[in-house]
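lol forgot to send this yesterday, sorry. struct tokens for the thing we talked abt
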């Protein structure tokens, strides 16, 4: 039981310190103010969205897409410098708007809760397997093997929930007045 509590505490600390971890791991430079980002926020505010702190990070990893960081109610947005350079302000508003809606609707918070529940449940189930536990190296190795299988199964099933959440966020963005043509142009630009 103590190990499960430790996992929950570590998960909360991880989410709380995400921005610092991203800054350390990306080894990129950060920018907190940018004229194009400000114009994009102005567009997003027309959709009834509340402005949030944003950090633009220069990074060499083409897979870096940024995201939402921090504990619920203390979130901030992080976006790659490449997005700011590649997208127009109307397209960048779509990127920011999707992230702002994920926060506003509670989708991100629900995702965090679901992930923590999945991790804790997986650890507890894995620790309950025959020969598993946390009191010896052999038990811990068995627990880790069980947890690896659990995690793999979670990756297969959570994509469905994530996809449904993305559809709901996109639908809410359109409902608030975002242009569908601009939305599809943004997706195309990011996929190229």
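and heres what i got for the seq, position by position
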């Amino acid at each position: 039981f103590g190990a499960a509590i430790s996992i929950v505490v570590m998960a909360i600390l991880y989410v709380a310190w995400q921005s610092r971890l991203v800054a350390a791991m990306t080894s990129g430079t950060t920018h907190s103010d940018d004229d194009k980002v400000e114009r994009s926020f102005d567009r997003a505010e027309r959709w009834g969205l509340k402005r949030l702190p944003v950090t633009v990070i220069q990074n060499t990893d083409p897979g870096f897409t940024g995201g939402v960081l921090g504990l619920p109610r203390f979130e901030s947005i992080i976006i790659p410098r490449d997005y700011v350079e590649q997208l127009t302000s109307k397209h960048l508003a779509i990127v920011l708007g999707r992230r702002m809606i994920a926060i506003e609707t509670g989708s991100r918070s629900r995702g965090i809760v679901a992930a923590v529940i999945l991790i804790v449940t997986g650890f507890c189930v894995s620790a309950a397997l025959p020969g598993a536990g946390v009191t010896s190296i052999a038990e811990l190795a068995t627990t880790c093997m069980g947890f690896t299988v659990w995690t793999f199964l979670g990756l297969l099933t959570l994509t469905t929930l994530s996809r449904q959440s993305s559809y709901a966020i996109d639908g809410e963005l359109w409902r608030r007045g975002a242009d569908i043509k601009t939305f599809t142009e943004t997706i195309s630009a990011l996929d190229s």
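The longest helix spans residues 137-175. anyway ping me if u want another try
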